[in-house]
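User: Sequence in, structure out. Go.
Assistant: Echoing your sequence, followed by the C-alpha cells.
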Amino acid sequence: MQIIPVASGKGGVGKTLLSANLAIALGQADKKVLLADLDLGASNLHLVIGQSAPKTGLGTYLTGQSQFKDIIMPTDYENVSFIAGDSEIPGLTSLRTSKKNELIRNFQEQDFDYLILDLGAGTHLTILDMFLLSPQGIIVTAPTVTATLNGYLFLKNIVFRMMYNTFKKGTKAHQYLEALKKDSASLQRLYIPKLVEALEKVDPENTALFKNRMSEFRPRMVLNMIDDPKDTDRANKIRHSCQEFLGLNLEHLGVIYRDTMQDKALASRLPIIVYKPQSLVSQGIYRIAEKIIHSETLKFDDEYDITQASETSFQIASEEADEDYSQKMAYVEELIGSGTLTMGELAETIKQQQFELSQLKKENLLLKKKLLDAARQGFKI
C-alpha cells in the first residue's frame, strides 16, 4: 500500500480539493483507495466529495465511541472508501501520543492500493508525524508569496522532525542539538547541509543514518492555482531552495491551473473530475494520478518507526513556527538569497501583513467596545 499524506504550509491552497479528486481518479483507474480526513478541527472533506455529514468518523473513534473498522465508509465513487474527520469535538487537533500511535498502526494495517491522508495545514507535531508515514507525501502550494513561504517552512520543520527522530536522546548528535537550542534563532538560520556537516564530526554513525533517511525521503510538490505558464518557474525555485538550504530533493509532481469551474462543482456538491472531467483542474489531477500510478512505492528503513518519536525533545522547530516572527524572517532571508522570493514580493507581503494587522486591531477595538457596553448593562462577562 502506498501511503500519500497531503499537506500544506497554509490553508486555502487546494489541499483538500487535490486529496478528494486524486482519490477518485485513482479509483477510476481500478485502484482501491482509502481517503481519510485528518484535518481535525476543520474537517470538510465530506463536502468536497458530496457525502452527507457522517455519524461516525475519526471523532467517534478517538473518543472511544466506535471501532476503527466501523468508521471506514463506502462512497458513491468506484473503489473509493472514506473516513470522515470531526470538526466539532474539542481537543482533536492535538492527539495524545498513545492515541496517535494507535491511529497510525490502524492506518498501516489497511489493505488498499493507496491511503490518502488529507492533513491539516500548519506544523503541529501530529501533522508532521502523519506526513512522515511515507517518504512520498505531497506538499500543496500556490504561486503566492505566503503560500511559497509556508510550504518551505513546513518542509524545514519536517527535516528537523526527522533529525530528532534519528538522533535519539543520549547520542552525541542529540547533545549537540540540545546545546544549539539555547540560540534557536541562530540555529534556524543555519542551513541544514552545514548543520549535518557539524553533526557528522561529533556523531558520524548516527549522522550517516540521518543522511540515508534524507536520501530515502522524496516528498512531492503540486503547484496549484496557477494563472500563467510563468507561474511554474516558482516550482523550480522552491525545489532549488529545498536542495540548497535543506539538503532535500523535492519532486515536482505537477501543476493545476485555476479554474472557475471548481466553484460550480463545489456548489453542486460534486468533485470537479466528476462534474467536469475535461476542465483544466480535472486534467491536471488526472496527470498527477497517472504519475503516481507509475511511481515506485518507497519506504523508510525498517528501523525508522514514527510511533517511537520523542514528544519532549522536539523543540528545535516550534509546533507553531509559522507564527514565530524571528523564524519566519530566517526563512524569508533564505528565500531571498536563493531568488525564490524577490524584494518586490517581500514588499507586497509586508503590505498584506500590515493590512491584516490593521483589520485585527479594528476587530479588537470593536470587541472591547462590546465588552464595555455589556459591563455597563450589568451583564456577566
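User: And one key feature?
Assistant: Residues 136 and 219 are 5 Å apart (CA to CA).
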